[in-house]
Structures are given as C-alpha cells and as structure tokens.
Amino acid sequence: MLPLTFPSCPHNLTPNFGEGIKLSSHPTDRTEIRSAESERGREREREREKQSKNEIDMELDGLSQLKVLSLKYNRISWLHPKAFASNRQLEHLDLFNNSLTAIPDRVLSPLRSLRRLDMSNNLYTSAKLGPIFSQLPLFRHLSMGGSLIPAILVGDFKVLRNVSLEQFALKAQSSLPKYQPGALAEVRTESLWFDFALDKNPSALPDILVDISRNQVASVRFRNLFEFTYYTGWLDLFAPLRQTRVRNLSFFRGKFNENLLGFILKNVEGSEVRNLSLQSVDFARSVNRSASLPNIEDLVLDWLTLTEISNPEVLGFNQRFSWFSKVQALVIKKINFNYVPCPAWNAMKLVRFLDISDNQLENSYIYNKRCRYQGTMARLEEFLLHHNAIKSLREVALLTAEWASLHTIDLSNNQIGRDETCEWRQPIATLILHHNRVTSAIFKCLPTSLVHLDMSHSQLERLERAYFEMAVNLTKLLLSGNRIKFIPSGWSSPGLQTLAVDGNSFGVITKGSFQLMPSLATLRAGNNPYHCTCDLFRFVQDIHRRGLLRLAGWPEDYICYHPDRYIDTRVVDYAPGRLECDVSLVVAISVSTTAVLVASSMVLCWRFDALWYIRAAASKAFAYHAFISYSHSDANWVRGELLARLESNEPPYRICIHERDFTPGKWIIDNIIENIENSRKVIFVLSKSFVNSEWCNYELYFAHQRAIGQAFEDVVLVVIEAIKPDSLPNKFCKLRKMLDTKTYLEWPPEANRQPFFWAQLKNWLWVRIIEYHSTEGGQSAHHVCAGSLVRDQSHSPTLQLFPCQVPIQFPFESCH
C-alpha cells in the first residue's frame, strides 16, 4: 500500500486502523502516514506478520502545525514516549475507545498547548494521573476512565489540585465497588460528568456529593446512576446536595422511581440548583412509595426539562402539579402524554416558556371546556406545540385567550387546516405553522398582529391579499415549499422585509409583483417553474438596477420552465432581443413606418375586400372556434346556454372549456396558454364572480399576449351580469379599457331578445353574414345565414354556408 501524503499541513488528522496498533515516532522530513503495507517492502511485511507484531509506524514529525488529532475507535495499545515530539501546537487529542492499558504520561510532555484530552473508554485499571497533568498550562478538558476501573481512590487526582478545568468526565466500572471519600475533593472544575452506576454501592453517592461541595462545581451530570435496578432504600442519597454550589443538575438514562425522584426534588428545593434535567430515564411507580416525602411546593427553577422518558406517569408524581409552581421554563418532550389536566394549567403560574412538543396532544385533550383558564399562565411568553396531532387553530386561540403575555406560538408539524374563524385577544407576534395542511381559509384564523409568519411546506395554494393589508406589522413571511400558483396582483404589505416563496408552482413574476412592498429587502423565490418572458426579464433587470432587493439563491435556483425552447435555461442566461422587450423602441419603429403600412393596408382592403380577410384569418389552422373563459360560479349558464347553443349548431362550433378540454397532467398555466393560442376567438363571460377570480385574470392576461395586431380583435365580451367599469379593481385595467372602448354583448333575460343575441355572437365568431332573399306572400325579406371558415382534408380553406334557424331582419347592408 502506498503512503498517504499530505501536500500541506492539515488541522485535523483522523486515521482509522482496523487492527491493534502501537503509535511511535521516527525522524522524517516528509508529512506522511505510512501503513503496515508501505515501502518497507513485502518481505519485511511478511516477516512482521510472522512475528505477529500489531504495530504501525505513523510519522508525525512533519506536522508541526497540527492542532487536532483524532485517533478514536481504534485499537491503539501503546504510545511511544516521543510520538508527539514534533507536534507542540497540538490542542486537541482524542484517544477515546482504544486499548491503552496505562494512562499516557511522558508522551504528553511536549504538548504545552494541549487544551482538550479524551482518553476515556480504554483498558487501564487505575484512575491515578501522573505528574505531567499538572504541567500543562492551557489544559481545560479531561475525559478519562474505562469499564475496568474498580475503584476511585484518594490521591488519584492529586495532580489536578492547582489545575482549573472547565470539564472533567470520569468513567468507571459499572456498580462501582469502591469510592474513597475525598477522592474528588481536589478536582477543580466547573463541570463534572460521571459515567458509572451505583446499583450495588448507593451509599457512595452522598460521599461524592460531599466532595463536590468542597469545590466550585457548577454543573453535574450522572449517566446511568442506577443502571439495572430501581433504588428501593430509605436513605436520602441526595441530602448533601444542599451544601453544594451546583446550579445545573442532569440525569441521563438509568432507572428512576417515585422515591428516588422525590429525594432529588426535595433536596433540589433547598439547594442552589436552578436547572434540572431528566433525559431518557426509565421511570416507574414505587411499590412502597415513601409516605414521608413532603409535597414539593417550593421548587424554584429557571429550567425544568423532562425529555424522552419512557413513562408519562412521571408527570403525575404530584397530582396537584405543585412542583411546577415556581418553574420559569418547562420542557416536556417525547413523553407521549396526550392530555393536560386542568390543575396543571393552574399550577404553572410563573412559567414564561412552555415546550410540550413531540407528544400525542389533540385539540379535545389540550383545550378542555371544563377547565378554567382565566388567571392561568399569565406570564407565558412562548408556547411550543410542534409535532403533535392538533387540527384546530381556533381551539388554540381559545386556550390561550387569557394569556396576556403570550407572543410566540409554534404549531409546526401538526394537522392544522380547518376552515374556521379565530379571535385573538393578545398581540401574537410569531406564529410557526410549517408542515401542516392549510388552505386559503387559514387567513381568516391568523392574528393580524403578526411580525413573523412561517407557513412553509403546508400545501397552501392561494394567498389572500385582504389579510396582508390588515397585518401591518408583518416583517417576515416564509411560504417555501407550498403549491402557490400565482402571485396575486396588488399584493400589498408595506412593512414586509423578508419573503420566501421558493419551491412553489407559480411561473409569472412581473415588475409590479412586489411593487407594494417598499420595505422588502430579501426575496427567496427560486425553484419555481418560471415562464421566461419579457415581464420576468424586466423584473430581474429592475432588481439589479435598483440594488435594493437581494434575491436569495440567485442565480442557481432560478430556472426557465416555459416556453419549451428555454426549458432548463437559467433565468440569468435568458436574454431576449431589445426589439422583443423594449416597448419604446417598438413604438419608434412603428411610428416611422405607419404611413406606409396604413396606405398599403387601405389599398389591399379596398382591392381584395372579403377575400383578403378570409385568407388572413385562414392563414393559421385553429383547433377551436372559441376558447371560453368564465368563473366557476357561472358554469351552469355556460354549459346550459352558451355551450349547448354553439355546439348544437349545424355545423357545430368547436368550443374549448377548461373543465373538459384541458390536458390532464399539464401545468394549468401551460393549458391556458396552449388552448388560447389554438382558438380563433376568446369569449370572456363577464360577471362579478369573473372579477373576483385570479384564474380569469390570468386568462385575460394571456389573451392579451397574443400576436401584435391580433390581441383584442379576437376577444368577445359577453356580459351576463351588469358591471360598472369604474368599479373594477386596478388589476383589471385592461378589462376596464375594453369595456369603455369595445362593443360587447349583453345577455338579455327576455326570451324574445335572445335570438338577436345568438345571431350577433355567431357573427362575431369569424362568421360571415350572407344575405339571401326569400319571397313569401309576395313580400321580400332580408334573412341572415351563417358561414364558417373551416379546412378540409387538403387543408384548403373553404367557406361553408348553412341555413338560418330564425329569420330576423337586420338594419345593415348586404355583405355582397
């Protein structure tokens, strides 16, 4: 095997050896790690194998700037005294979980910069430290010991008497057989971690606490204090805790019962402990619960943390929950409890921070109408409920209605999504709702006082502008990973500074999309199916020109999806020609050629009359005679009147409606664009419902984007409900202009006027009005026949005539 060579000195070096090894040092001018199969040759390697020497030479001489060396999880059994002679800058040495049979001493002599040493979980049988540990001026963290250490004796840590450690971690044999009082009295450290059980020697715990009381220890952590059995004795093991200066006390794993928990709480109550944590402990009821344990009512704590406890009955240790009464921050996570008893709310009067996440809470169990919430949780500021099964935001609002100080609620990873209205009495500033299943109805239930709103990854499809007009304090809005199909026109949020709408389904952004958000400084809008059009190009150009808005994820997250020729093109690389997007240039060119075009058009129109128009219109084959744009509220009239009349005609008109003719699986906007392009005319069925529909606004927008000179000439306006142009919102400015300047059809409710309506509509659908004469009763009358331009199988345009269904007199001249 070739040696591993490092061209420059790494700060971290972590070799991994599969066999037992010894670490030694040999002079070298190269920075190399040589394995047992290196350049020494196959012969020497075979000889080494014969001698069964588990030794690997690791040359570290060239690594003079090495700061961190990790050799954990190997089988190192011996260290050469000069192994680190050239690594005087080494600050962190990790020898965890190896096979060392003696605590390193001389090998550490050169390491005057050493700050952290982890040599725990090795095979040495004594905890006694050598004199070198008193000669390391920067030494602050020591982890030592292993499962073969049977006793902790006085004098083992004497060399640490004048060393100020930040953390000292000690591992010893399970069910530690022997602990000499005074063994830890000379350890000067801020934090003590113990990893040994006292199942068979519980009386050692008071001795350990007495030794701790002689020092300035601020934090103590016990791992597996009772590993195999529950403590059933009557001796108060934690009595000396009251004499210590410990402020942080934590228990990780191990077996706990009511008696042991009672001893702990009783002594914490009279101590300096302010942070108590029980994590991953195995809790059980005591068979012979001590009647002498007092009620815990004066447990003054900054933090009480109960996490990943196997039995939720730990919360019922005190039925009146009085041990919560003077706690300021309470964390109860992953205990699988599913309801909060009424007395618990009354007990938590001083709690400012409450985290009951990762449980099985549901609405009916967290908000109980039989409980009285008035006067409870008056100081609560932050309420975390994420990863539960809560479905109703309204019931959370009812639960917290009397909690006047509350400003933050986290309901992420629940099942919020009901259509309901909420009343919030306090000014909630932060609401976290990501990973729920919400609809646009959620906006009726959101507090308008919000400063920070997170509804990312919640399947939201549409935004409600009205809410943002009321939420005047909103500065941060996170909507990533939803299904939002369009940015609403006129979206106003004056105070919004940060907006995330990345990973949604909209493809159109225009220069004015965020114009009513003057404070917006950061916009994250990547990973959307962008339609690379002039509007998007102008939007990007405007952002870069003004330099006031930062596009997060630019340019790698912004990719074109439409039109087809730009698929997978980065938006930053989309550069349409100036003539394509510069309106002023187009106008200038148009004005300069107007005279020629007008003159030519007049001559052609006069010379070729109808034939010219027929050929112009027939220059493209259309799949449909008309595309109908209408609101879902008007669907019955469209299907029952308009569609039935046009498709029952002879020959029938080919009509496109979205609910029947859109291609399944395609993006909705792609379906709109494609079918409008494939239709000769576009019929807009106007009503108040049409005005309130965002999709109808999009269809009107794309109809306007048809080829220049064709756009509104192919648009037919059918008004079925009276609309005043002046009452239309600003986003319908094009529609207002059309109603003011373009003739439109109005649906008459009187049956005798409807034939005239149908005749006008058919005439408008690219149908020629042909006059013919009939004599009936000796009188001549002008009747109307309809003609439709279609293509036969040879793709030649043919004008088909068909008889009129209703003879009507018209006051205009013949088409002939």
Automatic annotation (TrEMBL):
GO biological process: inflammatory response; innate immune response; toll-like receptor signaling pathway
Cysteines engaged in disulfide bonds, as pairs: C342-C371, C422-C445
The keyword NAD is assigned to this record: no
Spans annotated as Disordered: 15-54
Gene3D superfamilies according to UniProt: Ribonuclease Inhibitor, Toll/interleukin-1 receptor homology (TIR) domain
Membrane topology qualifier: Single-pass type I membrane protein
Main location class: membrane
Subcellular location: Membrane
Cellular component GO terms, alphabetical: plasma membrane
Comp. bias (Basic and acidic residues): 27-54
Keyword annotations of the record: Disulfide bond, Glycoprotein, Immunity, Inflammatory response, Innate immunity, Leucine-rich repeat, Membrane, Receptor, Repeat, Signal, Transmembrane, Transmembrane helix
PROSITE patterns tied to this protein: LRR, TIR
Record domain TIR: where: 622-765
InterPro entries linked to this entry: Leu-rich_rpt, Leu-rich_rpt_typical-subtyp, LRR_dom_sf, TIR_dom, Toll-like_receptor, Toll_tir_struct_dom_sf
Keyword Repressor: no
A GO term, aspect molecular function: transmembrane signaling receptor activity
Family from the record: Belongs to the Toll-like receptor family.
Protein name, entry field: Toll-like receptor 18
Species whose genome carries this gene: Callorhinchus milii
